[in-house]
Amino acid sequence: MHTPATMVMGIVFAPLGLVLVLTASITPQWREGQARLGLTGPGSPPRSKARGGGGPPGPLAAVETLLLLRSDGLWESCLQVVQSELKQCWPVTGAYRRDPRLRLARGLVLSSLFLCGTGIVLAGVGVRCWSDVPLRGVAALGGFLVVLAGLLSLTALGVYTHNLGRLGVDNPGEGPGSGGGGGGGGAPRYPHLTLRPAGSLYFGWLGSCIQVLGGGALLLSFKRPWCPATQACPELPACPACRSCPELSSSPETEVYEMSC
Hints:
Blueprint: H1 5-26, E1 31-40, E2 63-72, E3 76-81, E4 87-91, H2 94-98, H3 100-127, H4 136-162, E5 196-197, H5 199-219, H6 246-249
Helix pairs in contact: 1-3, 1-4, 1-5, 3-4, 4-5
């Protein structure tokens, strides 16, 4: 017996969406921004300052401009010098880590991954289950969990995107780029950046939409195949899922063939 097309679509789309959402959740490119940082070149003394202005000015310091790329994710942040191999990553810290909107997004994404994995297992059992007739109720339940997982991840992405530029910087003096605070260690300081959405967000949006499509296809498994009546169409072969039809089961002359439902 062939597996219905809706089940095939769901069992393919659901794992694909799970992989995309998982990739988005573990990569630190949910938002990013660039800034230029001027550095004084070594070996070039700064302009000398004589008391009273009597001394001649010294040579100007050599200034080198570096283009920094800052990126943040749900669990990790990175700082990289553009067009070089210099890159440093560290776990999220400071006001960004304590932001309740970031915690909400992380919880929703973790719940989405768990529900999608559970739904895929149920869908795999229901699609075939080593029997001639698929367990449509089990497959549809798996589809419902996959749809719910997609909606949760879409909510997390929406919360993060809506507050993208305000996460961790709403409180002055607490942001990772501020100069206040003690001299404790942690993430390196960086200049003010204009943040924008990054690649991980797009992976997450795509994966969530695919999850909703795949779960919706599995939900169609609730619809049972149409059982032809033997009086109207006696020449049609019967589907194995229709063996419970009284018109077919009561007729000893009816031949049953395996076909796509």
